[in-house]
Design goal:
2 copies of one chain form a homodimer. In chain A, helix 4 links the parallel strand 5 and strand 6. In chain A, helix 3 packs parallel to helix 4, helix 4 crosses helix 5 and helix 6 crosses helix 7. Helix content of chain A is about 30%, strand content about 25%. In chain A, the strands form 2 sheets. In chain A, strands 1, 2, 11, 12, 13, 14, 15, 16, 17 and 18 form a 10-stranded mixed β-sheet that branches. Chain A has an 8-stranded parallel β-sheet with strand order 3-10-9-8-7-6-5-4. Chain A starts with a strand and ends in an 8-residue tail after the last strand. The longest helix of chain A is centred in the first third of the chain and has 17 residues. With about 350 residues, the first copy, chain A, is of the alpha/beta class. Chains A and B meet through helix 5, strand 11 and helix 9 of A and helix 5, strand 11 and helix 9 of B.
Chain lengths: ~350, ~350
């Protein structure tokens, strides 16, 4: 006999497994249809079993942001990992070498300093590591600043012992496929002019994933959030709230005034990433209510626009603004089939800051 | 031979143990001098060893926000716990009964519904639980709304089987000791008029803790953040950055432009609680720099106001805006004596959302 979710104590984080499966298949179909590789970013779920399911459905590998995440995924049997972060420092390079010995690994670099560190570690270990040049195509984070710089760093990587130039990687600005395409095309041209091939062009992000084919110079895409989706994605037209698998189930613990309800979940359950939205989540039972404010353990709900108002003890189901941040707060995620608990996932790559 | 912190991989969260000790002693001296009980809120550290040290220095007990936190602290031998949260629902009440059997426990209630649930569980178990009435003295979270309501709920608790009226509890609005004092005094008068005593009047918060004596009707105070302090407290005149024990040590991994540095710590290390401050932390080595933006794994530093600019590989020491949120992200905190690692603390009550 399975457990009904009413029998679970609150607050808890849960995913609707049917929605997860549907989100995964829809994405895989899209990328397969366009001949693009899908390399999911596991930061959204941090759960090995879900990464394995993504690969089983056709993903060409996975993306991790930290070595600690990649180690957890390699332990679980994931065989192809792109680490989209500059790896710097003796301790991390040592772990990178150990990881490169046991899985198909590629990393990124956006400077000579990073490439030199990678080269020293890999050549000393007698390994050759694939290194992609990270390109800042407008998002303003890491990355070389011009297509010409991408070319020069590609040549440098190609010449360094222990490294092989693996292609280009960018986390692009949202809603600017044209800009990203042009930038990457110029970088590819600059690199080819240096007599080098560009085997991989890796682009990322869920918001624009269903326009990935517009960047026709790319070879693969690295969306993360699409597996769970969240209120931010629904607000930006990537599906609707019905496509959001992740939810926090909470209990009303106080009704101090006619217009205020307090639930037993706050920023420790939802994170405080506002994501530019009004309110911190969508309350499915009370669409007119606003999760207006979060303390660490209290969620403050504004009921002023609601007709029906909840009582102490009522349970609410809330779609969070930012799925990835929620996964990093919870040790376990409850996998649901309808209103039944199917299984509990350990969020094994949670909190791997290194 | 102890480890130098240079030998630790980044990012990591650390506390300066000498600052912790000094913060604890200063607070204990103040409250002892004013004849007030100090009942630290452990949400800031979530570490049993530090709670035990607080008690050893003279704290009258501790404060927890969730049963899960209280269970961890009771396991460690903490003998007197105030749980400042409405406990609602069969599953939690069952855990509350188990906890009440093994430690000196008090909880709060702000409605008849909450009090009735507590009464049913406790009387069935043959126990008597101390219950404080939570008062909303202006912070706008949980709590009865008027001193008169406090009186009525106190009488109700007094009459319910399995419960004993334990006094008043408030999380007060910041910088309004006069308002809080007046509210509580009126509530005490209302309760005394009903022939009841008010054994405990418990007030909280670090920002106003050194003015706690101005609320001369209170008997104890529940500060949390004072043990570590943070950039928010320093910005609001509670000590300075030199009193902040908690820091994140991070490495510069990218210098994409003249004015931008990217470190290997983002919202997964700092949380995204802005706390109304500009920037997400104070960078000790670069006082003119701003930790302007956080991605999950990247911290974006604006160097435009800096003369000396860091290179890839440089380490930075950053005081976070909000200590409590940081503790909830890290499984371990490194205890430092100067630049040496003295011990590693497991953050055992981390992530206890229930």
């Amino acid at each position: 006999m399975t457990t009904r979710i009413d029998a679970l104590d609150t607050p808890f984080a849960a995913i609707d497994l049917a929605i997860v499966e549907s989100n995964l298949k829809r994405a895989q179909d899209y990328f397969a249809g366009h001949g693009l590789g899908l390399r999911p970013h596991i930061k959204t779920h941090k759960i090995p079993e879900l990464a394995l399911r993504q690969v089983e459905l056709g993903a060409c590998g996975i993306t991790c942001q930290k070595i600690g995440e990649a180690e957890v995924m390699a332990d679980a049997g994931i065989a192809d990992i792109l680490l989209t972060f500059n790896i710097v420092g003796t301790l991390k390079l040592r772990r990178l070498v150990a990881l490169a010995r046991r899985t198909t690994l590629a990393v990124v670099a956006d400077s000579s300093a990073v490439a030199a560190g990678l080269s020293a570690a890999m050549s000393e270990a007698g390994l050759t590591l694939k290194v992609l040049v990270e390109c800042d195509t407008g998002a303003g984070r890491c990355g070389v600043q011009t297509p010409e710089q991408a070319g020069l760093l590609a040549r440098e990587i190609d010449r360094l012992p222990g490294l092989a130039f693996g292609g280009l990687m960018t986390y692009p600005p949202r809603g600017q496929s044209g800009v990203t395409r042009r930038w990457l095309a110029e970088a590819i041209a600059a690199i080819r002019a240096l007599q080098l091939e560009v085997p991989v062009v890796s682009v990322g992000g869920t918001p624009d994933m269903y326009r990935a084919h517009e960047i026709d110079v790319s070879t693969e895409h690295r969306p993360g959030t699409y597996i769970y989706s969240d209120r931010y994605m629904a607000a930006h037209g990537v599906g609707t709230l019905a496509d959001c698998a992740l939810r926090i189930v909470a209990t009303v613990v106080s009704r101090p005034t006619a217009d205020r309800a307090i639930i037993d979940a706050g920023s420790k359950s939802f994170s405080s990433d506002p994501m530019g939205l009004e309110g911190h989540g969508a309350i499915l039972e009370l669409p007119d209510a606003s999760l207006a404010q979060l303390s660490e353990e209290h969620g403050h709900i504004d009921l002023s626009r609601c007709r029906a108002k909840p009582a102490v003890g009522d349970r609410l189901t809330i779609i969070p603004n930012h799925a990835c941040a929620v996964s990093n707060l919870h040790d376990r995620i409850h996998g649901l089939q309808g209103d039944r608990l199917e299984r509990i996932f350990e969020v094994r790559a949670r909190g791997r800051v290194q």
